[in-house]
Amino acid sequence: MLSQLSTIALCAAAALAQSTSSVFDFPEYPPAGTPDPNSTLANAAGPLPFGIASDPKLSEAYIHYDTGTYGPQIELVHAYYTYWPTGVGVASDGTVFTSFPRGNETFTLAVFNSSVTEAPWPDQEWNTPPAFENTTNPGYSIATEKFLLVQSVVVDGLDRVWALDTGRPEVNGSYLLAAVPGGPKLVGFYLNGTNFVTYTFPANVVYADSSINDVRFDLRGPGYAYMTDSSPNRPGLVVLNLETGASWRHLDGHPSVSPDTSFVPVYDGVPFYLYPVTTPYAINNFGLYAADGIALSADGSYLYYAPLASRHFWRVPTSYLKVEPGPLKPYAYLQAKQAVESLGESGSNADGLETDSSGYIYAGAPEHNAVTRYNPATGLMEPFVRSPYIQWPDTLSVVTLQSGGGYVYWTCNQLWLGPNYQNGTDFRTKPYVMFRAPIEAGKATQLD
Ligand SMILES: *[C@@H]1O[C@H](CO)[C@@H](O)[C@H](O)[C@H]1NC(C)=O
Ligand SMILES: *[C@@H]1O[C@H](CO)[C@@H](O)[C@H](O)[C@H]1NC(C)=O
Ligand SMILES: *[C@@H]1O[C@H](CO)[C@@H](O)[C@H](O)[C@H]1NC(C)=O
Ligand SMILES: *[C@@H]1O[C@H](CO)[C@@H](O)[C@H](O)[C@H]1NC(C)=O
Ligand SMILES: *[C@@H]1O[C@H](CO)[C@@H](O)[C@H](O)[C@H]1NC(C)=O
Ligand SMILES: *[C@@H]1O[C@H](CO)[C@@H](O)[C@H](O)[C@H]1NC(C)=O
Ligand SMILES: *[C@@H]1O[C@H](CO)[C@@H](O)[C@H](O)[C@H]1NC(C)=O
């Protein structure tokens, strides 16, 4: 029945295509730049590779199957044998920066110094705070210029390196210390490792139980940094004016930044029900993770984001986020919330998001071992690259290399197999990896 219907639909479409222009022509479909379906269909037909020899007639049955693969060839950039990575930022000279959420790890921000090793960056000193635990304030961490837990590292359009520190190191397994002001920070370095600025946040912008997760920069005008707060206790966005250092929040508690409490993801085909292990202040339950991935449109006008525990995808015009709420702007919070646009479902939850110069918004798709991309010109998610080796695409970074070519790099870290999500058992296997794949466009520099 279904196939007859689709045959009829195809005939109708063919008839329309031959007629003169009408409102039913949809001349824009498929939209320009849409990938050839053959390049992205992840299926094929072939005989079963086993168990068919007993009946020769069946061995000739070519059976449709999922190849698990589409898009450009992925390239293995790095194998991590030491620590568990999240962030990646790639400079135009090919230097790759990466970050490690820190428990007892000796460094949290690093640079690749070979394809299988990492070195602390800019040096060990920056990665060595005087302490993790606050001796006078049990359960809290400390204020320090040094790194506590760098969740994300981003290279901006001027090739500067930014470390986003949650200020909440993990101790004793999954126990996240709470932050004190001066712990959470955004630290800017030149590519040569010279620190040129450090921003900290008031206690009512980044709260003790906040978790600033990822950051994107708009270097137009005074310059802004946009951050997600992925804490289940504080779903929201943090905006920082790079010129004045002032920061404020937006979208607090809005559904677009909040987890979908009925979310059941599927990883490697297996429905995933999290065993809820929670300790005070611990953010170890991504059934509850809020706004996580973040990307700025190439022209700076929209901020795209997605809660980790949701398949829903959202954006908000940055013009509303740039307004600092206050006594003279009493409606700013409400107006930003009213301006949020639902982009519908994206087909997977997404951990990392990233932009390229042509306007695509790349989205890690852990449920499909894939990276997909949103085309703002059509409002559709398109397939980009898929492979069974993409085991939890975490964070993405687009770069235009001086040596030629545009690439998207991403970390794969098997997140859902970690002990915090598997009732204490670690099912991950080393090495964790970083891949890259070529893209048609390049980095969106977000400059004037
Ligand atoms: C796509 O694949 C089909 C089936 O193999 C083939 O008939 C068709 O010519 C292909 N189209 C393109 C544009 O390669
Ligand atoms: C760090 O913690 C992990 C997990 O608890 C443990 O396996 C490892 O031995 C610890 N490393 C050090 C240097 O203490
Ligand atoms: C990379 O850095 C680590 C840590 O500093 C160091 O132990 C290692 O020798 C370095 N490896 C290379 C190849 O430079
Ligand atoms: C410990 O916490 C207290 C209370 O929040 C704070 O005033 C103090 O600066 C913290 N200690 C350090 C070393 O940061
Ligand atoms: C971590 O464990 C050590 C040793 O058991 C203990 O002294 C310390 O208080 C614990 N820290 C926290 C924050 O629970
Ligand atoms: C590092 O780079 C910055 C910006 O290019 C420059 O101003 C500074 O002098 C450099 N520092 C060193 C030690 O090379
Ligand atoms: C989780 O681990 C604890 C401690 O080992 C065990 O008692 C409990 O039964 C486990 N729960 C599940 C759902 O496996």
Question: What do these coordinates show?
Answer:
This protein is mostly beta strands. It has a single domain (75-439), classed as Neuraminidase (6 Propeller), CATH 2.120.10.30. Helix content is 7%, strand content 34%. It is built from four helices and 30 strands. The chain has helices at 2-18, 37-40, 318-321, 332-338; strands spanning 43-46, 63-66, 75-80, 88-90, 96-99, 109-114, 117-120, 150-155, 161-165, 170-171, 175-176, 185-189, 195-200, 212-218, 224-229, 236-241, 247-250, 266-267, 270-271, 291-296, 302-307, 312-317, 341-345, 353-355, 361-365, 370-375, 380-386, 393-400, 406-412, 432-439. The chain has a four-stranded antiparallel β-sheet with strand order 3-30-29-28, with no helix packed on it. A four-stranded antiparallel β-sheet has the order 4-5-6-7, with no helix packed on it. The protein has a four-stranded antiparallel β-sheet with strand order 8-9-12-13, with no helix packed on it. The longest helix has 17 residues, at 2-18. One 2-acetamido-2-deoxy-beta-D-glucopyranose (NAG) is lined by residues 36, 38.
